[in-house]
Amino acid sequence: KTQDSEFRVRGSGRTDLKILDVDTFGLGFQAESAGLVWGADYYHDEVDSQGFRNGAARASNRPVANDATYDSLGLFTNYSGEIGDRFTYDAGARFTYIEADWNGYRPAGAAADQSGDASWDNLSFSLRGQYDLDDQWSLFGGASQAFRAPNLDDLTGSQFALNGLDSNGSPNVDPEKYLTFELGTRFDKGGLSFQLSGYHTWIDDGIVRVDDGMGGLITTNGS
């Protein structure tokens, strides 16, 4: 159970208060046998959200939509193996399903609360390997995918930003996807070890906040 609150006083004397209560329930399972690891995890968030201005309730001041839930289910597996005496590798996969549901969402300018829901799924893979050149030097590298679904703040958030701006979510935002390649070398002898590596990450539909043209910020997807 977590609670977060934010209180702001403007130079004019106006006060704004945001209160967020979250109850989280989770369950995880993992098993391992002969180099194979597999398992699952599940998390469920129940969210209550309140907003006030000058002490009076104000729906558009809620930090995220009120009466909301957020569910996350993951299934994963990873296998570690060897080829010959010098090469080892890890191959993994993860399936993710995310579902968000909200009722008390009051975007700026709306006269009544709105409800909505969204869901996403993704299958990501990873492959990493290491080759031992000798007893001290080795080369390693890999490629991996990653996925992040929008959270309730991305979708329905209303936060204070710098310079008096308000930063708002968008129910239409899409998930972020990543692809990373890495290559490096490692040295290990006695009590001395070091490594040097380089990597590059491609981001598809990165979630960012941009100027909404009306004196605030809004969540959207970048390139």
Beta-strand content: over 45%
| Largest sheet data | 10 strands, antiparallel
* DSSP E strands, number: 14
Structural class: mainly beta
Elements, N to C (H/E): EEEEEEEEHEEEEEE
Spans with pLDDT under 50 lasting ≥5 residues? none
Give the overall pLDDT as a whole number.
94
Contiguous helical run count: 1
N- to C-terminal distance? 36 Å
Helix content: under 10%
| Broad shape | elongated
Overall radius of gyration: 23 Å
What is the secondary structure topology, with strand pairs?
Elements: E1 2-9, E2 15-33, E3 36-53, E4 56-57, E5 68-83, E6 87-105, E7 114-132, E8 137-148, H1 152-156, E9 158-160, E10 166-168, E11 176-189, E12 192-204, E13 207-211, E14 217-221
Structural write-up:
This protein is mostly beta strands. It contains 1 helix and 14 strands. The protein has one helix at residues 152-156, and strands at 2-9, 15-33, 36-53, 56-57, 68-83, 87-105, 114-132, 137-148, 158-160, 166-168, 176-189, 192-204, 207-211, 217-221. Strands 1, 2, 3, 4, 5, 6, 7, 8, 11 and 12 form a 10-stranded antiparallel β-sheet that branches. The protein has a 4-stranded mixed β-sheet with strand order 9-10-14-13. Strand 13 and strand 14 (217-221) form a beta hairpin. It is elongated and about 70 Å long. The two termini are 36 Å apart. 15% of the residues are buried. The mean pLDDT is 94.
